[in-house]
Structure prediction request, 179 residues.
Amino acid sequence: YVRQVFLTLIWPVGLPVVLYVWMHRAKDLILAEDEDTLRKFDFVLCDYKREYWFWEVVELFRKLILSGVIGLFGRGTIAQSFAAVVISFFFFALSVHKQPFVSNTMNFIKAVSEFQIFGILLVCTIRQTGKKGLPVVGLGTESFYGTVPIVLTVFIVPLVIYIVGGNVRALRGEKNDQE
Prediction:
């Protein structure tokens, strides 16, 4: 049993911890923008502002908490849904506040995707309260709460297409200016 717990924890917890320790030891070189160090950690640093050298570890823990740890709150319970809503809102707010990406576009897409997760989990909590017999009067119909997660999920597609299209137009404009 102990071996199973150890092996279960080593990858999802051990990898982010080891990555953080490894990067923390090189923190001063990362912040000083040492070329060799940046090349060494490019796989986790390339999208983030240097002061947020640790942000990929934050993302790994966010994923671990929302996909694994949340199960400790009792599968299918309102408490589990509520905990997921609170945790997802925390990471949404943190991401919006810190704006860790170099690209403003990526910060915007991250905020939208974090809001999607929050919104979907919030709707799940509302639906669960209705299934448990708690009144959800005046907040919408069952079909409304079935539609909201779909809309939230699909919403990102046209947004990303619009952003990518704008970036392509900008790149074409730069190319034409260079010629």
Summary: The chain has eight helices and no strands. The two ends are 67 Å apart (CA to CA).
